[in-house]
Amino acid sequence: xxxxxxxxxxxxxxxxxxxxxxxxxxxxxxxxxxxxxxxxxxxxxxxxxxxxxxxxxxxxxxxxxxxxxxxxxxxxxxxxxxxxxxxxxxxxxxxxxxxxxxxxxxxxxxxxxxxxxxxxxxxxxxxxxxxxxxxxxxxxxxxxxxxxx
Length: 149
Fold this sequence. Notes:
This protein has helices at 2-65, 70-79, 89-109, 115-143. The protein is mainly α. The chain has one domain. Helix 2 (70-79) runs antiparallel to helix 3 (89-109). The longest helix has 64 residues, at 2-65.
């Protein structure tokens, strides 16, 4: 009779240990899931931040030189070409508008400098200046750690 009780107790202990091991495995899997999710968000942040920096650099180049070159526009397009995979439509639209304005500014700068052309060039410059000041606001929802999309 005592051996029967011992066998039952050992079975209960083994069952209990199996449950404990299963819980530990589930906990480790949950932590790995959280870690992988955080890594994904960080990688996404890095890619988005690189595009933010490319936009900022492009705007600063235009503002510091009061001009835009074809090479600089091509570099900007190259640096932001994957933005459609990383941002929603608002940023894609902004990048397209920025490129269009840069092209128009380039075309305007290549015209003979009449008072009208100079006035239009100044309007473009002021637009680039406004957008540079709004840049953090435009990108903030994608770069703030608390509100990642």
